[in-house]
Design goal:
Elements: H1 13-31, H2 36-39, H3 42-55, H4 60-72, H5 78-87, H6 102-107, H7 110-120, H8 136-139, E1 167-172, E2 175-182, E3 190-198, H9 201-209, E4 218-221, H10 236-244, E5 252-255, E6 266-272, E7 289-293, E8 298-301, H11 305-314, H12 326-333
Parallel strand pairs: 3-4, 4-5, 5-6
Antiparallel strand pairs: 1-2, 2-6, 3-7, 7-8
Helix pairs in contact: 3-4, 3-5, 3-7, 9-10
Length: 345
């Protein structure tokens, strides 16, 4: 994927030109033996994550880059996302929490513009190799260090949308291995309230559509993780329904599943360990008090350790949703979300 190509509108002539250029670059890469492992390094993954933070990208980036790093043999952990987040501001005012879309972003300068801003401020590694055979710094040589002032899609460095990244890793007794919160567009970044517990996404949707969810509630959707799902469904429907009812800011949602890039609100995904393997999310009861606090990076079930231990003794793993075939094999092989839900053991 060449720089800037992913934001082009499919019907535009430049898309065909980009596809032709991509073919030429691919043939050149083969001739010059430029392989993925030459490009995918710890520094280049850090570049990619910095770009995700600067543009307000999806929570799915956490899963994807953990898995990519594993496949490439690169050392990268869920805590590295938090390290990058603290350094990188959100520079782009994009949907779902902002007003602009990908084509607006492209016209404003797109990925090359944001990468050049990050490079100018020492937040990406310019020496990293790209698919063209040139370094990132060489690819960005002709891009200005500041965006045009006649647009508001990409903010000036001195006036970011947020001073730090938007994907934060929370930990606590509800997610000892970590989970991911997307905190853009929120007036308040913490909530404590009673749990509304559902053992599947359809069950939660039924309650939301029946308007049984009230402001201050924290919805728990469990058994939708890598093994429990199996495969981590996107929770776009429940979050969209909540926003449609005007509850996007006043209701929390916690799941061991994942979210769409179109999701925003007080939502926390990829809770690990997941419910199916006996993670604390499996022990939550209806009405339990739960705290989500993005600033403190905390996700806590406000139940004593003694009570949780008693609940754990009574907990039994549910029957698997699949007992044979590909999905049954996947359930046996897939790792926790905190390692990227990989199947390499």
């Amino acid at each position: 994927s060449l720089l800037g190509s992913s934001q082009m509108a499919s019907p535009d002539p430049e898309k065909a030109d980009s596809a032709a250029d991509s073919a030429k670059v691919l043939v050149s890469a083969i001739r010059n033996n430029i392989r993925p492992r030459k490009i995918i390094t710890r520094k280049s993954i850090e570049n990619a994550v910095a770009m995700v933070m600067a543009t307000g990208g999806s929570t799915n980036a956490v899963l994807h880059y953990l898995a990519i790093a594993s496949a490439a043999g690169v050392k990268w952990s869920i805590d590295d996302f938090e390290r990058v987040r603290r350094r990188v501001p959100v520079l782009c005012n994009l949907k779902p929490s902002g007003p602009y879309v990908a084509t607006d972003f492209h016209r404003a300068g797109g990925v090359p513009q944001v990468l050049k801003m990050l490079l100018a401020h020492g937040l990406v590694h310019g020496e990293c190799m790209t698919i063209t055979g040139r370094t990132l710094a060489e690819e960005l040589a002709g891009v200005p260090e500041e965006p045009r002032r006649d647009q508001d899609v990409i903010r000036q460095w001195s006036k970011p949308v947020y001073p730090q990244g938007h994907l934060t890793i929370l930990k606590g007794n509800l997610a000892t291995e970590g989970c991911v919160a997307k905190i853009t567009g929120l007036k308040q970044t913490s909530i404590t309230g009673p749990a509304r517990v559902f053992d599947s996404e359809p069950a939660a949707m039924k309650a939301i559509l029946a308007k049984r969810i009230k402001p201050g509630n924290i919805i728990v959707i469990r058994y939708e993780g890598p093994k429990g799902g199996p495969g981590m469904q996107e929770m776009l429907a429940p979050t969209s329904a909540l926003i449609g009812q005007g509850l996007g800011e006043s209701v929390g949602l916690i799941t061991d599943g994942r979210f769409s890039g179109g999701t925003w609100g007080m939502v926390v995904g990829h809770v690990a360990p997941e419910a199916y393997v006996g993670g604390t999310i499996a022990l939550v009861k209806e009405g339990d008090s739960i705290t989500i606090d993005a600033k403190k990076r905390l996700i806590q079930l406000n139940v004593s350790a003694k009570d949780l231990a008693a609940r754990r003794k009574k907990w039994k793993q549910p029957r698997p949703r699949y007992t044979h075939g590909l999905l049954a094999k996947y359930m046996k092989l897939v790792s926790t979300a905190s390692r990227g839900a990989i199947t390499d053991g």
